[in-house]
């Protein structure tokens, strides 16, 4: 229970206009995309500067008040909402939304952490540069959330995940101290990498208030195709061929099952079946050329020809315009959303070595169907990164609650198979509160102990996002 007098001290830092006290107005900050977590909060603060954040965290440490940082509230593991039974003050970074500077020579953009990802992409584009981080949630997620979850998305194959796109950060520590680490250096071997500690920390070590991000030359041509194939094994061989033929110009390689295409066509406005015949599996390929659209198209044609010759691909279509490029990506990016009208879904964001993807799909399918014969498996994702969203929709006409009630049993099966192949239980969404106990069970004791020691060193009072990633004891 946080006392009224402490709450009013918090309010006076940001001013009443930027403090949310009414339960009805707080409710949207507590509702996360999957509706799995139902924590509470007596107060949401909307600071307007790093100095405001500094005063908030200093007061939180002084009074032992739990703080939950929140950016776009699109996270999938419940990191951005308080744990049930542990009310916390939510600090929304949405007002920190300034693009601070673009340096076209150094190819960097310096931003406030509350900038919406899409706004950063647009600002880069206006400067004739590319900021390649791209997620289905890019219209609402904010860069501080992307950094704190080390988000992945569709650009990882060519450009890396958020960690690879960040050169420097500005962070407010739980003590209220502000660390200005807004460096633009590609090379800087001067001791422990403090920046990397905050990337992927999910708000458990401090609050990110600014960042320096890497920009890239804008490709002159981008060509997208969708191919129909028989199996993930053929998709893997096709991927190997694409990597060999396209080297650094292969910027997307996503796998999708037939059922995912059907859900998307049925439920997403504007989505169409991309090929005239049905196929068990589909791959979306994107090639980006630094030269021209024609160069991207002819590379795609050569790639598809050789894949046909090798018998890897049964049919394919190349987008005829930018608009069709976007329609093809819409199919892939809406696949998760398209599952919603089909009822409850048990979701997994796993990764395995790319070479193990076919084996993972086969083993997981066998084991899941054995446990749940009517399950509808929608396994899709960033094949080129070894990252599969292995989702299981409830049986047709079945009951959503009883499907969800079996999620721990199904998680054990799917995570067990991924781990046995040297994989991970969280490829890009993080740990949050959803996977905290699993993390403790799968990482070596020394790793958990090191994480706790880091947490204690930064946040001895345990005010930062309690109940997420690791507990203090
Ligand atoms: C439709 C959809 C598609 C998605 N696609 C992808 C995808 O392809 N790849 C992917 O990786 N994720 C994806 N996600 C998940 C989500 O969008 C990402 O995890 C995103 O990075 C979260 O950003 P956010 O601004 O919403 O952060 P939030 O959800 O608000 O917060 C996420 C975590 O970061 C912490 N945090 C937030 N801001 C700060 C800060 N400034 N300082 C310190 N800690 C902070 C929070 O406490 C929380 O632990 C998707 C989500 C949706 C809804």
Summarize the structure.
The chain has 473 residues and is an alpha+beta fold. The protein is 37% helix and 20% strand. The chain contains 17 helices and 19 strands.
Q: Could you characterize the architecture of this molecule?
A:
The chain is of the alpha+beta class. The protein folds into 4 domains: 4-92, Uridine Diphospho-n-acetylenolpyruvylglucosamine Reductase, domain 2; 99-217, Uridine Diphospho-n-acetylenolpyruvylglucosamine Reductase, domain 3; 221-336, Alpha-Beta Plaits (2-Layer Sandwich); 343-420, Alpha-Beta Plaits (2-Layer Sandwich), CATH 3.30.70.2740. Helices cover 37% and strands 20% of the residues. The longest helix is centred in the middle third of the chain and has 17 residues, at 293-309. Residues 33, 68-76, 79-80, 93, 113, 135-137, 141-142, 144-146, 148-149, 151-153, 202-203, 207-208, 336, 428-429, 432, 465, 468 line the site of flavin-adenine dinucleotide.
Number of domains: 4
Structural class: alpha+beta
Task: Label the overall shape.
Answer: globular
* CATH topology label of the largest domain: Uridine Diphospho-n-acetylenolpyruvylglucosamine Reductase, domain 3
Number of extended strands: 19
CATH architecture of the largest domain: 2-Layer Sandwich
Strand fraction equals: 15-25%
Q: Provide the CATH top-level class of the largest domain.
A: Alpha Beta
The number of distinct helices, counting runs of at least 4 residues, comes to 17
Low-confidence stretches: none
Ligands present: flavin-adenine dinucleotide
Largest sheet: 5 strands, antiparallel
Strand order of the largest sheet: 5-6-10-8-9
Structural Rg:
23 Å
Fraction in helix: 25-40%
Mean pLDDT: 96
End-to-end distance: 21 Å
């Amino acid at each position: 229970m946080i006392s009224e007098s402490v709450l009013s001290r918090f309010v006076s830092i940001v001013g009443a206009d930027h403090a949310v006290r009414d339960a009805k107005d707080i409710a949207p900050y507590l509702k996360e995309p999957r509706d799995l977590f139902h924590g509470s909060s007596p107060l949401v603060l909307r600071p307007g500067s790093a100095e405001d954040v500094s005063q908030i965290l200093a007061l939180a440490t002084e009074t032992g008040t739990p703080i939950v940082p929140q950016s776009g509230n699109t996270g999938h593991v419940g990191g951005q909402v308080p744990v049930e039974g542990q009310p916390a003050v939510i600090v929304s970074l949405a007002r920190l939304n300034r693009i601070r500077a673009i340096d076209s020579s150094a190819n960097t953009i310096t931003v406030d952490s509350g900038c919406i990802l899409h706004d950063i992409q647009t600002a880069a584009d206006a400067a004739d540069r590319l900021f390649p981080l791209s997620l289905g949630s890019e219209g609402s997620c904010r860069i501080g959330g992307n950094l704190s979850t080390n988000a992945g998305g569709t650009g990882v194959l060519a450009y890396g995940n958020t960690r690879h796109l960040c050169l420097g950060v500005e962070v407010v520590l739980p003590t209220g101290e502000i660390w200005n680490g807004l460096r633009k250096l590609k090379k800087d071997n001067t001791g422990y990498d403090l920046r990397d500690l905050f990337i992927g920390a999910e708000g458990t070590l401090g609050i990110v208030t600014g960042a320096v991000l890497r920009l890239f030359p804008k490709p002159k041509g981008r060509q997208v195709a969708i191919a129909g194939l028989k199996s993930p094994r053929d998709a893997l061989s096709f991927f190997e061929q694409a990597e060999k033929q396209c080297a650094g110009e292969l910027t997307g390689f996503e796998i999708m099952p037939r059922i995912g295409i059907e859900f998307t066509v049925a439920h997403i406005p504007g989505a169409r079946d991309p090929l005239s015949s049905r196929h068990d599996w589909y791959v979306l390929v994107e090639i980006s050329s630094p030269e021209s659209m024609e160069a991207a198209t002819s590379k795609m044609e050569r790639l598809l020809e050789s894949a046909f010759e090798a018998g890897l691909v049964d049919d394919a279509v190349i987008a005829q315009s930018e608009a069709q490029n976007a329609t093809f990506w819409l199919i892939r990016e809406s696949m998760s959303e398209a599952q919603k009208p089909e009822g409850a879904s048990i979701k997994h964001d796993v990764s395995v070595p790319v070479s193990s993807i076919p084996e993972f799909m086969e083993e997981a399918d066998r084991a899941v169907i054995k446990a749940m014969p009517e399950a509808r498996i929608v396994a899709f994702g960033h094949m080129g990164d070894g990252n599969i969203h292995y989702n299981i929709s409830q049986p047709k006409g079945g009951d959503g609650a009883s499907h969800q009630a079996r999620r721990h049993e199904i998680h054990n099966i799917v995570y067990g198979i991924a781990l046995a192949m040297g994989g991970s239980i969280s490829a890009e969404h993080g740990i949050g509160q959803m996977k905290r106990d699993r993390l403790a069970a799968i990482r070596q004791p020394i790793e958990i102990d090191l994480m706790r020691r880091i947490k204690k060193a930064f946040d001895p009072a345990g005010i930062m996002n309690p109940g997420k990633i690791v507990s203090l004891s």
